[in-house]
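agent> Task received from the user: take the single chain below, predict its 3D structure, and emit structure tokens. No templates, no multimer pairing.
agent> Plan: (1) validate residues, (2) run structure prediction, (3) serialize to tokens, (4) report one or two observations.
agent> Step 1 OK, no nonstandard residues flagged.
tool_call: predict_structure(input=
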Amino acid sequence: MSEASSSNLFLAMHGRLITPPVADDILVGITRSCILELAGRLGIPVEERRVDRTELYVADEMFLCGTGVQIAPVTSIDARILGDGKIGETTRAIQDLYLSAVHGEAEEYLEWLTPVYAAADAAPKADRG
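)
tool_result: status=success, residues=129
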């Protein structure tokens, strides 16, 4: 992936998540808000602040989030491997909880979902009397 114009960036560093603040002209996305909430549930502190480019190279983990990518681990930046080059524990924990929530498997997040019904189920049945 070479850009992430429709995604939000999260770095995992020293046991916390770091993400740019809304004031930095980022995409104020629904998925980003979900990640902030899930991090709280998992007991992961979140710091919203400016991210310096050099931090991208030294982050323990990094992921992008958004409607299209959901939770996408970033394993390298500018051909530099992050961590061990695989999805990290923090990213995996957030990804697992997020997927559980959006698939309706986590009861505490059912309010995030909107049921979608097949056209035949949604349309009123004709009176066949």
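agent> Step 4: summary for the user.
The first strand starts at residue 8 and ends at 13.
agent> Done.
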